């Protein structure tokens, strides 16, 4: 009985609407195609992405036995005799078993591609014989005809080879094969024919290779696939040509005398020729959508069923982010096809990775096709004969095999290669185990305790309330982390213990796999690949104690134990993962972060998410259930920079989220932050990395209609994100994507959206700058300073949000501006009109008109070398000069509006203080996050500098974002679009009023905190930065207490009174307080309530020192309820 497979699993698929179809398929049947053919790949991808915005999230793969097939199959194409109507009806109605699926092509002659028939083959054969006999003369005359006839007629090479290759090349290939046979016979190793032919050019390529038998030959075959992928299939350039590939294996031995398998593999690569299909198809035939983006050869050779299959796969690829996988069977011919579609450019080296996976399971495709289409879709088809499964234990095991391959194809899309792949190619680990081990390695690299007991002892001695002590500990921690468990050391330890990795993966599989049922089986290939069967592993749960005992007994030393124990921590603290979803594009893991060492991470995190993809690794950390923070994307100029960024990635994420927690003192959300670190080869793929990072996190936040994940957290989660470094232009995509994935909170998912999507752009309205300026101007007001007479330097140029608005709002005398392009300096004062021009145009200082500099002024760009300054100093390297320029100038005011964290630190702060102990600057307002380390701030304050830290100064942006979130949660979808979305550049009246109230709230909050800081400093003589931290800590602590105090929240009248004060009046007037309370999640309302009370009390009563002040404050507010 033949094994039965579903044609396609369309998990909730929604096909492209007509307007999206016209974008994804550049032409319809009523228009010519020539205009579409000139589109670059990036333009095509943009067209596809526009179409996807209107689509529902879909997936495409084999399904479990009881799953019903959903969706619809497109109409039949080309032939009136073959119609897919019955197929569509069958699939849309659903099927309950593996019974009569519509992929059983019983009555068709051609299941895949039409046979190649080369009419000139006999004539060509004669010419080859003549060439070998009269021109090349390398084969004995008596053997020529026998070799040629065997090559042409007996080994089963496809006619496509003879049709594509010139006669001279065929003659050369016969010579090579003959020489290989002679060499094998001479060495008495007939089974080891060594045939490797490669002929590559820009438009085509041919590879002939001995059929892989030994591991060396398997590696060689993989090298060919990698070469094809790199040169022809994965070219990232916009104008890169498209290619198609046909690969086939000869059906008979090359050497008649050989008793071993001496077949030959042929790979033929040709450049695509996209044409107008209306010129190639008769008017009586229907033209499918796929034809408008297809290669001419594909249309000529593909069977009707193949075109329909590919059409369905393409439609699915265009409606989702990741790959589409389908399994098809020809019942009479006992052939099975594995078809995989994906978007070109979304993954590299996918073809060789999938081929490697099939070899791991002992599967050999007798024909492989790769088709690239002009709309950016690539489709791979592997064809298998029934003999490939002859050793399978039962028909169900074959079915399970392809179900497993489908899942692992999605894993390979996430991680097509890792530095642990050698464990896979040597069959020590499966692809799932390799992906798991790689994820644990990344996890360990960033979070394992690398500091030792000495650090813990020092931490216990030092005063954690002293910010200088905290900074010293942080510096020691960074240095110890570098010297302890490096990435290489962790990797080397993991690969030493494959048996432990397998054991730990079994436990991971038991806890988080989907649909394991009662059998608890895990399928692995047997070590002997030639057996071509699965080895079902029955696995049972093992206690943590037993796992630890096994690790202790197996590992050679304590270091090895420390690393392998991280697998136990990984499993025990993992709450949910998308690892077993077939629709994933990157791996994501949600952890309970209680395992983090308190000596390293003093303040406990609420949640930790790790995301791992081919192009990146990343984290999202938050300190509260309701929390928000930006997503930062980190680039690295070289391998050294990448290693440096990787070493501090988790610590930087933690510190940024913690700083965000302190900064969010006026808003309901706690602190959160996300970081994405690009892998070295993908520095040019920031958008792709961001998209995969976001999609993988969304996997954990919303239920999948067709596939469930094991959720040990057990409660709904909502994340609030925003833009940060290198992600500002990507937040619209994230919002669209959340909507397409049916996330109910899509409107509030990201702040920083474009106004057309309801966003309030910080740069346009200067939201962050409004709070920074309140502190700068507050200092001037308190000290009776005239800003026009003050000199000023600024990092972060006129191209940035904060930098441009600071220039627009300020009236000081700028003497230096430092940005990404370089440094511009003029002791006589930079031309303000020129700075304003750049700020309005959002251009860096490399566009500054140097004719407007004085004789003593200069500009040094990062690309400059050996530049002589007006004072005679020579700048050898522009980048080095830029990186330290903020330390060289003397000015009254310094406002950092951009730059990397720690730009001023304990190691360089002395450059800002002269020999007499006098500082070069008088007032520093830290607009950029973490620009000055705490120990450096302490040094500056002791020298007499007034320092306002970032958590106080730049909170305007987070306030604006929080109020944007509140509006998103308060409106329903229709009202949100009507009142918050700017259309055709025209703001709705409500939007304008709301933005103005947001500005007022930002300035009011900044004024409250500034006055509190100034007066408390005057009375208690505590530095401003210490006070800022103290205020934040007091507010956060009191906020937690109020949030948990049920009695206050349960007083409905009091609760509503506070909410009425905290929620913007414009919003209440438009929607009504009762409607807002009904729509906004209770946890969020409760956070508004507690944070408003906490912040207003601390700002008002911090200076009193009265222990009963909070009682008086609450009593006063409660009295208003009864008034």
From TrEMBL:
<comment type="similarity">
    <text>Belongs to the Glu/Leu/Phe/Val dehydrogenases family.</text>
</comment>
<protein>
    <recommendedName>
        <fullName>NAD-specific glutamate dehydrogenase</fullName>
        <ecNumber>1.4.1.2</ecNumber>
    </recommendedName>
</protein>
<keyword id="KW-0560">Oxidoreductase</keyword>
<dbReference type="InterPro" id="IPR033524">
    <property type="entry name" value="Glu/Leu/Phe/Val_DH_AS"/>
</dbReference>
<dbReference type="Pfam" id="PF23152">
    <property type="entry name" value="GDH_2nd"/>
</dbReference>
<dbReference type="InterPro" id="IPR006096">
    <property type="entry name" value="Glu/Leu/Phe/Val/Trp_DH_C"/>
</dbReference>
<dbReference type="GO" id="GO:0005739">
    <property type="term" value="C:mitochondrion"/>
</dbReference>
<dbReference type="InterPro" id="IPR056365">
    <property type="entry name" value="NAD-GDH_2nd"/>
</dbReference>
<dbReference type="InterPro" id="IPR046346">
    <property type="entry name" value="Aminoacid_DH-like_N_sf"/>
</dbReference>
<comment type="function">
    <text>NAD(+)-dependent glutamate dehydrogenase which degrades glutamate to ammonia and alpha-ketoglutarate.</text>
</comment>
<dbReference type="InterPro" id="IPR036291">
    <property type="entry name" value="NAD(P)-bd_dom_sf"/>
</dbReference>
<dbReference type="Pfam" id="PF23147">
    <property type="entry name" value="GDH2_N"/>
</dbReference>
<dbReference type="InterPro" id="IPR055480">
    <property type="entry name" value="NAD-GDH_N"/>
</dbReference>
<dbReference type="GO" id="GO:0005829">
    <property type="term" value="C:cytosol"/>
</dbReference>
<feature type="domain" description="Glutamate/phenylalanine/leucine/valine/L-tryptophan dehydrogenase C-terminal">
    <location>
        <begin position="759"/>
        <end position="1021"/>
    </location>
</feature>
<dbReference type="Pfam" id="PF00208">
    <property type="entry name" value="ELFV_dehydrog"/>
</dbReference>
<keyword id="KW-0520">NAD</keyword>
<dbReference type="GO" id="GO:0006538">
    <property type="term" value="P:L-glutamate catabolic process"/>
</dbReference>
<dbReference type="InterPro" id="IPR016210">
    <property type="entry name" value="NAD-GDH_euk"/>
</dbReference>
<dbReference type="GO" id="GO:0004352">
    <property type="term" value="F:glutamate dehydrogenase (NAD+) activity"/>
</dbReference>
